[in-house]
Each structure stands twice: as C-alpha cells, then as structure tokens.
Design the sequence.
C-alpha cells in the first residue's frame, strides 16, 4: 500500500470525510478506483460512493459511513492505494512512502537519523528526519546527493548541527 492522504475530519452530518492528500496534485487520488483505509486490524478496502475536490482537501463518502459519528471515527486514518495501481516512478523520482524509514547520513558519514515523514511546501518537499532530535531537511538536488532504496540509505549535504 502507498499512503496517498489522511482523513482529517468529518464533513457535514451524512458520513462524508475530509481527506488531506499527500499527492503532488490535489485530485490525484480521484484517479484510483480502489482506496484502502488503515484500521487497527490492518488495511481494509473503503468503497467510495462519491468523492471530489473541496478547496484544499478532498471530501469523500465511503459506503457504510452514514453519519457524523462514523465519519469522526475515521479521523486520523490513512488512505492508500495498492502499489500495483501506481505508475513506475521515473529516474530520480520517488514516492514519499519509499523515503519513509531511510537512514540519512551526511557527507561526513554522520548519522542524522531516519526519515519519519515528508511534506510539501510551496518551494519544495521537506524530509522530517528524527534521531536525537528532529531535523527538517529540504528534498532538493542541492541537498540530497544520493538515494539508495535497496540499501535503505540517503546521503545529504547537510551539517549535523542544523
């Protein structure tokens, strides 16, 4: 599964939810027929009755989610699609989910920590790297020197004191 967004709140009183997409374009999730919701017991398919862009989020109505309380119970749950449905990433392109968990080292071979999260800003994506403290490292070609998914490692031009 590749996480494409997170349910952030109920929308209205009829079981609709707001989804904050983690995709490059706001409506990318709408391209996929099968959405999966991360429950405590694992992933379950969420049958989408209807979904659309609403401002800076998506709103969706899942089958069986028929009231505000049911929608509220989904708050904080991740929404994903099967990796098999995604196009292959191009050279030098990565799905955020592939970056999560990579060990990050700088050019001096100091371990800066592990990628815990990735988020978008207006200018570029940012890696949240956690070790003894949290570091926010821009995911740009000037900073990220190498990504080795097979080895679970990323090399960055970043001072350990930043």
Sequence:
């Amino acid at each position: 599964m590749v996480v494409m967004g997170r349910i952030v709140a109920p929308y209205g009183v009829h079981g609709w939810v707001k989804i904050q997409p983690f995709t490059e374009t706001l409506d990318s999730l709408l391209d996929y027929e099968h959405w999966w919701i991360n429950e405590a017991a694992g992933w379950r398919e969420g049958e989408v009755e209807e979904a659309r862009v609403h401002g800076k989020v998506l709103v969706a109505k899942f089958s069986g989610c028929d009231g505000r309380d049911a929608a509220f119970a989904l708050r904080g749950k991740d929404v994903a699609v099967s990796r098999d449905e995604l196009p292959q990433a191009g050279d030098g392109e990565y799905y955020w989910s592939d970056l999560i968990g990579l060990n990050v080292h700088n050019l001096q071979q100091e371990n800066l920590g592990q990628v815990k999260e990735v988020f978008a800003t207006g200018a570029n994506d940012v890696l949240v790297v956690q070790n003894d403290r949290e570091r926010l490292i821009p995911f740009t070609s000037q900073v990220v020197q190498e990504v080795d998914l097979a080895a679970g490692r990323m090399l960055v031009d970043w001072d350990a004191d930043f």
Notes: The CA atoms of residues 37 and 122 lie 28 Å apart. The radius of gyration is 18 Å.
